[in-house]
Structure prediction request, 175 residues.
Amino acid sequence: MVKRIVVAMCLMLGAVSASAQPKAGAAEGSQLSFFLGKWTVDGQSRSTPAGAFGRLTGNETCAWFSGGPSVVCRETTQDASGEVDSIYILSWDPAKKQYSVHGTDNAGNITSGTGTVAAGVWKWTVDGRGADGSVTPTRFTFRQAGPGARSMDVEMAAGKGTWAKVMGVTYKQTR
Prediction:
């Protein structure tokens, strides 16, 4: 169950082509272009901080929503526990002056959180709520990983202020 929530949250934060651009005056929102495009997903995940890693593969498509400054993403991944389909929205909230993410998956998990970007590194902190009502605090870090690629590391709260890596993924842009 925890693995499904973590995979779903990762899918909701990972990143169709960028046809429409954000409206004028949305400089912060335009930074979300980092997530735009069609991507293949390859990496490793585990269901708990102490569990064994297994292979994760999939694809993702992200595009501007009605000219921005929000990005809508759909992602499907496959791992040992099965397939997860997710949809999520990444947005700039000008009133709060912060990025936000909201999404769901085919198992009924809900993800909500906030993000920052500095020196090209995106950091998201989210609460993933499982269909059973359990909440999993999770951190996501995205970095450029060469031309047409980015990486994502995911950490899950492991108790007493500690975090444990539960996923490492590379996204490669397809054309």
Remarks:
- The beta strands are 37-45, 54-65, 70-79, 82-93, 98-105, 110-118, 121-129, 135-144, 149-159, 162-174.
- The longest helix spans residues 2-13.
- The chain has a mean pLDDT of 85.
- Residues 83 and 105 are 10 Å apart (CA to CA).
